[in-house]
Design goal:
Distance between the termini: 88 Å
CATH superfamily of the largest domain: Periplasmic binding protein-like II
Helix content: 40-55%
CATH topology of the largest domain: D-Maltodextrin-Binding Protein, domain 2
Strand order of the largest sheet: 2-1-3-10-4
Number of domains: 2
CATH class of the largest domain: Alpha Beta
Radius of gyration: 26 Å
Strand content: 15-25%
Structural class: alpha/beta
Number of helices: 12
Order of helices and strands: HEHHEHEHEEEHEHEHEEHHHH
């Protein structure tokens, strides 16, 4: 009996030692894996994007493996507002970001070392709530208008209001999240607001009146910017060259096939539906090219 108990105890000790060694090996492997994941993430080209159509070349290049075809590891960081994208690049969480020229100029003036990579086709449309009976800009007096401070929508609000005389003050309400802005319109919680695509198309097909369109301006506002230190070492320079090749390939593909061809990607990344995608206007996407920024943008905010 004693021998039997000794055998049981001895076997249990062996099993305990084995389990302990197994856990130790697993923990070492987990630590090693985390270190490798951190290393790869630090080397990857991280880009701040929004659920808007100016980012479509980035989404297409990512989902269609165009970045991989150029041997560049791209990580898309999704945000729902320009403010969040700007915060991400200011804090070094990403190296590239979509934004507009007004906000980019403001970040540069605040000391951030940025370079303009290329313009995007971003535009904004001003819609009023269909229940508010606002059909003209001069009817915005004593109404709430949603926009983002120190941005293209803030500038556009100045521009359109300078062309009319309202009976009372227009109240600018800062709603940075473009999806929330659209929901507030559809739920009759906001009188008027600026929307990019595809949110603007959703507002249109729900029969909300269009008051203004940034495309009527002589200016192009959307840009893709990068931290200036992207070019400081050979690895980052090569990475950026490969990124540009893939981005240009995506632009060519979208222009060739049209937006509806990429319906699933638009629905996936822009939080929209097939009805909106079917109603989208024809858009063209330009390849990476030098950017010109007007002095009125540089010193505005």
């Amino acid at each position: 009996m004693r021998i039997f108990k000794c055998i049981i105890i001895f076997t249990s000790l062996i099993l305990l030692a084995s389990c302990s060694n197994s856990r130790e090996v697993k923990n070492r492997r987990t630590v090693a894996e985390r270190k490798e994941q951190y290393r790869l993430d630090s080397l990857a080209l991280k880009i701040a994007v929004m659920p808007t159509l100016d980012c479509l070349p980035l989404y297409v290049a990512y989902d269609e493996d165009l970045f991989k075809s150029q041997d560049v590891d791209v990580r898309l960081r999704q945000y729902s507002s320009q403010m969040d994208c700007d915060t991400a690049i200011m804090r070094g969480r990403v190296r590239l970001s979509v934004t507009d020229k007004l906000r980019a100029s403001r970040m540069i003036r605040q000391g951030l070392s940025l370079q303009y990579l290329t313009e995007t086709n971003a535009y904004w449309q001003l819609y009023s709530n269909r229940t508010a009976r606002i059909k003209r800009l001069n009817q915005l007096g004593d109404k709430m208008l949603a926009m983002t401070r120190y941005s293209a929508t803030d500038y556009l609000t100045d521009t359109v209001l300078d062309t009319v005389k309202t009976k009372a003050q227009v109240f600018r309400i800062q709603i940075n999240d473009v999806n929330l802005r659209l929901k507030m319109l559809l739920n009759n919680e906001m009188d008027a607001l600026w929307l990019p695509e595809p949110q603007a198309t959703t507002a249109r097909i729900h029969q909300n009146p269009l008051l203004a369109d940034s495309r009527n301006s002589q200016d192009n506002f959307g840009v893709l910017v990068s931290l200036s230190n992207v070019n400081r070492n050979s690895y980052r320079r090569k990475q950026l060259v490969s990124f540009i090749k893939a981005y240009n390939m995506a632009c060519d593909s979208i222009n060739k096939h049209g937006l509806q061809y990429y319906s699933s990607i638009i629905i996936k990344y822009c939080n929209t539906d097939q009805r909106t995608v079917n109603a989208l206007p024809k858009l063209m996407y330009n390849k990476v090219a030098p950017v010109t920024v007007s002095a009125k943008f540089v010193n505005k905010y």
